[in-house]
Predict the structure.
Amino acid sequence: MIPLEPYYELSDADLDSRIHAAKHALGSDCVILGHHYQREEVYKFADLTGDSLKLSRLASQRTDARHIVFCGVHFMAEVADILSAPHQTVILPDMAAGCSMADMADLPRVEAAWKALGEVMDVESLVTPITYVNSMADLKAFCGEHDGVVCTSSNATKILAWAFEQRPKVLFFPDQHLGRISAFSLGVSLEEMVVWDPTQKNGGLTPESLRQARVILWDGYCSVHQMFQPAHVALFRARHPEIRVIVHPECSFEVCRLADERGSTEGIQKSVRDSPPGSVWAIGTELNLVNRLKHEMPDKEIHFLCPTICMCSTMFRIDAQHLCWTLENLVAGTVVNVITVPEQVAGKARVALDRMLSIV
Ligand code: 13P
Ligand code: SF4
């Protein structure tokens, strides 16, 4: 294996030209997928870009490429492995690119919650488990096994609507904010939702409150999106009365309610791109995406909806050095950082992912 360290001695220009050359040498044997939060020096090399839903679909469609280099975070690469063909390998250029929200729920604790719910109600017939795609593969498998489903930020409301057609209650993990705003938009009141704290016995909830709840929200969140505050929305509205505020649904309920629109990373891009020249926007999502839109559309006034920098540090781990190292190893015949979901997990997770893809 070619070692990584020497790549940190290279200039930006050298890295660029070596990535270009390696991509050229690999040709259609390798496809680079890039999430919208990737830093520019990596994003510009992506063959295909998207939000989690779009990238999931793309991963299942590019069967011509033997290697899928995923510039994103770990759970995304796992989904690509689950949905891609058996002859394909999925590579994450830096194995430390995780998602802190995905780490807030794990199989032992979700199974413990399911068991505890089973002690106060007929959980299998009353509750549909829904996992946000930002979760580990074994939680997707849990949903596959229990007639549940996966959702993404762009389809959570539709998926919840589907779930309520199946059973009266939902256990939604790990992102309480996405679950809350999506359920609320379907007419579920805040009084009908409870938050399950996995560190407490019975989630810190009484049997009575669990029996009454329609939505049980896992106590997880994205710390990046919690940086956007209601006061920031008020500040921008005071400064620019014509402004449109658009936020990612991982933001708090209050911020989502105050915004004019909310959308996935792909949805945010589309709304801002489709707006007429001269439009004024404040965007509540990761900084790299907002900066890219600012740069791309100088005819619009685009503000970052937070006075401080808020970036996803794990997305940022994928740098040009890791990308160059990954591709040059591939050219030399060595496949580094392969993401493999064991088939006994992947099979069940595929059930929950395919169910999502058939609903939306
Ligand atoms: P999207 O599916 O909207 O791209 O969101 C992924 C994510 O991790 C946002 O924090
Ligand atoms: Fe995870 Fe938040 Fe980063 Fe998205 S922005 S990958 S939810 S930590």
Summary: The longest strand covers residues 30-35. The chain has three domains: 5-97+314-340, 102-222, 225-304.
